[in-house]
Amino acid sequence: MKISCRKCSPNEVFEIPNFSLAEKKLLLEALNVSGLEAIKEMRKLHRITLRNAKFVMTHINIEHKKCNRCAYQLNILEYTSCANCDALNLNWNV
Ligand SMILES: [Zn+2]
Ligand SMILES: [Zn+2]
Questions:
Q1: What digits encode the pLDDT tens for the residues 22-52?
Q2: CA 9 to CA 11: how far, in whole Å?
Q3: How far, in Å, from the CA of 7 to the mean position of ligand 1?
Q4: How far, in Å, from the CA of 74 to the mean position of ligand 2?
Q5: Counting beta carbons within 10 angstroms of the beta carbon of residue 19, is it exposed (0 to 12), middle (13 to 18) or buried (19 or more)?
Q6: What's the CA-to-centroid distance between 30 and ligand 1, angstroms?
Q7: What is the CA(45)–ligand 1 centre distance, in A?
Q8: 8 Å CB contact between 42 and 53
């Protein structure tokens, strides 16, 4: 799927894999360790460029329905933009 972030890369589109639920869980666990760990896991699971993996990593919500940038309350959509700061959120419910 293609995603972009109005906040940090309004003119750029990133192609990202369709992660399975199990993969999302794994990535969130890795992200709790470190961003680097999440990128490493992502690149083990899928063919994704370092740049795109980094983009995904920085937009995953640690906490469901809470903006990764400003902690604002989000809707329940899985891929959504924050109504407060406009940042893209990978709002995975795992
Ligand atoms: Zn962004
Ligand atoms: Zn926000």
A1: 999 999 999 999 999 999 999 999 999 999 9
A2: 6
A3: 5
A4: 8
A5: buried
A6: 20
A7: 23
A8: yes
The pTM for the full model equals 0.94
CA of 2 to the centre of ligand 1 (A): 14
Would you state the structure tokens that stand for residue 33, as one six-digit string? 């360790």
CA of 73 to the centre of ligand 2 (A): 8
- Region of 71 (left: φ > 0; alpha: ψ -120 to 50; beta: rest) is left
Q: Give 45-77 pLDDT, tens digit per residue.
A: 999 999 999 999 999 999 999 999 999 999 999
Residue closest to 91 by CA, chosen among 35, 19, 40, 39:
19
- Degrees, nearest 5: CA angle 3-35-5: 20
